[in-house]
Amino acid sequence: MEKKDALINYCLRLGDSSLILGQRMAEWCSNGPILEEDIAMTNLSLDLIGQARTLLTYAGELEGKGRSEDDLAYRREEREYYNTLLSERPNGHFGDTVVRNFLHSAFSYHLYQALKNSSDEMIAAHAAKSLKEVTYHLRHSSEWLIRLGDGTTESHEKVQESLDNLWEFTGDLFEMNEVDEILIKEGIAVDLNTVKNDWDKTINEVLDRATLTRPQDAYMHSGRLEAVHSEYLGHLIAEMQFLQRAYPTAKW
Amino acid sequence: MSNTDNQGDVWEVFIQSKPGLPHKHAGSVHATDKEMALQNARDMYTRRQEGTCLWVVPLNAIVSSTPEDSGSFFDPSDDKIYRHPTHYVMPDGAKHI
After folding, report:
1. Any residues with CB less than 8 A from the CB of A156 and at least 6 apart, and which?
2. B8 at the A interface (CB within 8 A)?
3. Would you call A34 an interface residue with chain B, using a CB distance cutoff of 8 Å?
4. Residue A223 pLDDT more than 50?
5. What's the domain count of chain B?
6. What angle do CA A71, A72, A74 make, to 5 degrees?
7. Do B36 and A147 touch (CB under 8 A)?
8. B39 with A143: Cβ contact below 8 A
9. pTM for this structure?
10. Would you say the ipTM is above 0.90?
11. How many domains does chain A have?
12. Residue B5 has what pLDDT?
């Protein structure tokens, strides 16, 4: 595999994860538990879609086949998406969403901290910009998790269950293959084992404050690296791509 | 400041648009505590670069004059024009006055 192909794949991994999580958060629009949260969650969505735009545009340029950010976002098939399995998990109840966002934003936070020093200028600039956004995403989800975990008996039980259910999708975040190997050598990508150490610390600190129990590592799903997904991604994509599929020449 | 609708208490939001300028009232948010009030204010009122600093204040911490006060509070200043510094020419360099 050539460096260029590895970099395109790397951009899709980051960009698709933002895109899919952004789409999930957009699903909360008009369904939030209170007006303030509704707006907060759609804000998160817009941040994430913005992040996806930068990376998909860059991936399209690197590829050099004239594919735009929209072509990549809205005209690929399910097996061409490299998003994290965690990002596609359904919103469930508010606690499920909080836990998913917490686990994911802690990952993005530490990944972007490391990618700020990437030797690829675009990746480094993107990481620096996105870091400000995901710092808030992590704060938002952490504070909610602490309140739900350390709230009532019912809220504690509910988010503990969310955490137990989502835990098996966290292993996928840190898996690496040849793409990582090539890009780490070039100083473009970072070793996800290092990110995992930082992630562990954040997770443990916040779970502790939330009086929640960290689940034991047991069976972990994987699929991100091979673009193999759960049954949920197809449905998400069908909704996300509806307009572009139904009206292929539609323009803003 | 009733909590019967389960949305938390009301907090008043004040935004400073630039360093050095006074915080101005922007509106209100619901929240259950000060951190959440600050986050909600950030999400509701600063999405379009409105501010550089935020204050949130619990509604019940604000003491307001009442309409009944207005006669004795505000009318006596009606005929004291000399309290306005309008007779001075402002130097060009003076801003935000």
Report:
1. A148, A149, A150, A211, A212
2. yes
3. yes
4. yes
5. 1
6. 65
7. yes
8. yes
9. 0.90
10. no
11. 1
12. 66
